[in-house]
Amino acid sequence: MLSLAKRVTDATGDPVVGGVAVILHGSGRGTYDIDIYSSDFHATHELLLAAKIPWDARRREHVIGGIAVHLVPQESLGGPPERVGTIKGIKVISLADLIRGKLTVALEAIHRVTDLAHVVDLIDRIPLDKSFAAKLPKHLCGAFKDLVEQVRGPRRTVVPTTAYLRKHAS
Q1: Using an 8 Å Cβ cutoff, are 48 and 11 in contact?
Q2: Do the Cβ atoms of 100 and 77 come closer than 8 Å?
Q3: What is the value of pTM for the model shown?
């Protein structure tokens, strides 16, 4: 999947924004498609065709190696990506842009529960804490902090102090 995503981002110059971006940023979740940000669907479509990534008229999407390629507008990300980087040779949106986009769509439509699960997985695996909310738009900060609390949960055991560890060392 990652080699196909690299081919797509190399062909278009556009970053991955969906499940592949979640994987690149540290999640263990899988994905079944390649989502890329596009500010101009027609131009991106032409670049994909030029790179011999065909258009499947029946499915109404580009397909590479049996994997669908979806073009994602800025509205689905809560705005255009503010930062783009490269991970494993693949152009990808920043973690803050990714979480902003995933929370934006998840909070607008309950059927986008996978996007919420991606954010939860990133909070857990990276791990992220409430301070990361400062990188998000204000209207998403509360929801992000609530997710962090739910992922982390209340501490069940007391963290032992150095004095406790010395006293109980054998």
Answers
A1: yes
A2: yes
A3: 0.86
Contacts 24+ apart (CB under 8 A), 48-52: 48/8, 48/11, 48/12, 50/11, 51/7, 51/8, 51/10, 51/11, 51/12
Helix-strand-coil percent breakdown of the chain, rounded to 5? Answer: 50, 15, 30
Q: What average pLDDT does the segment 3-21 reach?
A: 97
Comparing CA positions, the residue from 3, 10, 20, 27 lying closest to residue 121 is 27
Q: Which residues contact 144 (CB under 8 A, 6 or more apart)?
A: 99, 103, 119, 130, 132, 133, 136
Residue of 102 and 159 predicted with greater confidence: 102
Q: Residue 106's CB: how many other CB atoms inside 10 A?
A: 21
To the nearest whole percent, how much of the chain has pLDDT over 90? 80
- Residue 21 and residue 98 in contact, taking contact as beta carbons nearer than 8 Å: yes
Ramachandran region, residue 167 (left: φ > 0; alpha: ψ -120 to 50; beta: rest): alpha
- What residue segments make up the domains of the chain, in order of their start? 2-152
Say if domain 2-152 classifies as CATH 3.30.460: yes
- Residue 33: enclosing H or E segment and its boundaries? strand 33-37
**pLDDT tens figures, 63-119:** 999 999 999 999 999 999 999 999 999 999 999 999 999 999 998 888 888 999 999
